[in-house]
């Protein structure tokens, strides 16, 4: 097989890249080791930055997003006895949208799904330091395949095969001493906007997916087993940590439960010859800043522009600038996600607790501090290097 861009991974980053390239007349092949049903069902992030939404809408994927997405103009920050709103719209003129990653992937599969090779095995990249890189894999029927491409893109996540193909560069990593227990529940959200709650027993968050589906999280120990958390125990703990006089938490059937580890990770280089990494293949942020998906989309936006210039005009300057441009945003988001995580999760250290409460009070009382949180949360503008 021959294609212009061979893409490893059919998550939101790989699918979006394939879609945006197709709009520019650049053809691609996408391979994915999971099944279509698995990719379509996995529950992940839920907050889209304005620029992410604008990009999806401009690329023709706005129909379901406009119908089901919920615009949020702020979030609530809380600690015992206090709940404060950070007004994104007033502070930055921008908003975020609640629309599950699961839904974004469904929309993308609607346009690209038939061109994805699902359930492949033995995926390997070859000759990526030449101008004739290749991708080999065994398809779902057991037939070995080789794709000859001009460029290969690794969109295969933290555990994928693409990053290890790049000769060792530098990586920065932190595993946080806590995890999130996340649930999806069939109950209308008890809040209009997301609640991020600091509590001496640990962080809790109230998010949502639709007017009938709530998504909630509890800080737990990293090795925590889901089986140890009965539905009653989860609702009780959420009730305590999110509790506020005059407010009550609605409960309902829990339809999904899972524990997510929390990690910060940045790996460089993001490019080796004709191989480019996007999204979680190159960097992971803890979920507290709602940045992971948006950062992957930003990588894809920058790379699409660079590949567009390469295939249309033979220009290599934007490809050469991809890594620096992407990394500037990666480090900004890595800092913001670390900062939100550090402000809201408890470790048992009593000095830390007082510092966190002082920081929360400052963010909720100083317009300058609130604006800093808001502009990072809604997302700094994409810098794709596009000049035309
Ligand atoms: C979610 O709805 O899953 C969600 C929202 C905000 C976050 C993380 C996750 O910071």
Second CATH tier, the architecture of the domain at 5-72 and 96-172 and 263-345: 3-Layer(bba) Sandwich
Q: What are the distinct ligands in this entry? A: P-hydroxybenzoic acid
Q: Characterize the largest beta sheet: strand count, sense, and whether it forms a barrel.
A: 8 strands, mixed
First-to-last CA distance = 34 Å
EC number: 1.14.13.2
Protein name: p-hydroxybenzoate hydroxylase
Domain FAD-binding: 2-337
Enzyme class: oxidoreductase
Protein architecture, described:
- This is p-hydroxybenzoate hydroxylase.
- GO terms for molecular function: 4-hydroxybenzoate 3-monooxygenase activity; FAD binding.
- The structure is a single chain.
- With 388 residues, the chain is an alpha+beta fold.
- It is built from twelve helices and 20 strands.
- The protein has a domain at 5-72 and 96-172 and 263-345: 3-Layer(bba) Sandwich (FAD/NAD(P)-binding domain), CATH 3.50.50.
- The protein has helices spanning 12-23, 36-41, 50-58, 63-68, 88-92, 101-112, 162-165, 231-242, 292-313, 317-344, 350-363, 367-378; strands at residues 5-8, 28-31, 47-49, 70-72, 74-79, 82-87, 96-98, 116-117, 121-126, 134-138, 144-148, 151-154, 170-185, 195-197, 204-210, 213-220, 254-268, 271-272, 275-277, 283-284.
- The strands form four sheets. An eight-stranded mixed sheet has the order 6-5-14-15-16-13-17-20. A six-stranded mixed sheet has the order 8-2-1-12-19-18, covered by helices on one side. A three-stranded antiparallel sheet has the order 3-7-4.
- A hairpin with a 7-residue loop joins strand 9 (121-126) and strand 10 (134-138).
- The protein is globular, with a radius of gyration of 21 Å.
- The structure holds P-hydroxybenzoic acid (PHB).
- Residues 45-47, 194, 207, 215, 287-288, 290 line the site of P-hydroxybenzoic acid (PHB).
């Amino acid at each position: 097989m021959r294609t212009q861009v061979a893409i490893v991974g059919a998550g939101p980053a790989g699918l979006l890249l394939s879609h945006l390239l197709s709009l520019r007349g650049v053809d691609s092949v996408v391979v994915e080791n999971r099944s279509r049903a698995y990719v379509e069902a996995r529950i992940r992030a839920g907050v889209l930055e304005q620029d992410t939404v604008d990009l999806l809408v401009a690329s023709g994927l706005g129909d379901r997003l406009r119908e089901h997405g919920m615009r949020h103009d702020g979030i609530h920050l809380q600690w015992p006895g206090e709940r404060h709103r950070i007004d994104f719209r007033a502070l930055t003129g921008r908003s975020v949208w609640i629309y599950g990653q699961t839904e974004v992937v469904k929309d993308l599969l609607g346009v690209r799904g038939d061109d994805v090779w699902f359930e492949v095995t033995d995926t390997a990249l070859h000759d990526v330091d030449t101008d004739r890189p290749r991708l080999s894999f065994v398809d779902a029927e057991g037939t070995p395949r080789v794709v000859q491409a001009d460029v290969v893109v690794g969109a295969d996540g933290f555990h994928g095969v693409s990053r290890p193909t790049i000769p060792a560069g530098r990586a920065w990593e932190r595993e946080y001493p806590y995890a999130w227990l996340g649930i999806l529940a069939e109950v209308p959200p008890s809040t209009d906007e997301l609640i991020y709650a600091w509590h001496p027993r640990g962080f809790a968050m109230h998010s949502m997916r639709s007017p009938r589906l709530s998504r909630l999280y509890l800080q737990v120990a990293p090795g925590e087993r889901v089986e140890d958390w009965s539905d009653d125990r989860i609702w009780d703990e959420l009730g305590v940590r999110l509790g506020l006089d005059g407010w009550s938490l609605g409960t309902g059937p829990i339809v999904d439960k899972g524990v997510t580890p929390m990690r910060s990770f940045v790996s460089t280089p993001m490019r080796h010859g004709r191989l480019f990494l996007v999204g979680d293949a190159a960097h992971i942020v803890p979920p507290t800043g709602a940045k992971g998906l948006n950062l992957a989309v930003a990588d894809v936006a920058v790379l699409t522009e660079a590949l567009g210039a390469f295939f249309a005009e033979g220009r290599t300057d934007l490809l050469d600038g991809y890594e620096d441009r992407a990394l500037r945003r990666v480090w900004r988001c890595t800092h913001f996600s670390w900062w939100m995580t550090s402000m809201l999760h408890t470790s048992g250290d009593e000095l830390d607790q007082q510092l966190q409460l002082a920081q929360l009070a400052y963010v909720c009382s100083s317009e300058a501090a609130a604006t800093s949180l808001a502009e990072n949360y809604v997302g700094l503008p994409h810098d794709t290097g596009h000049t035309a």
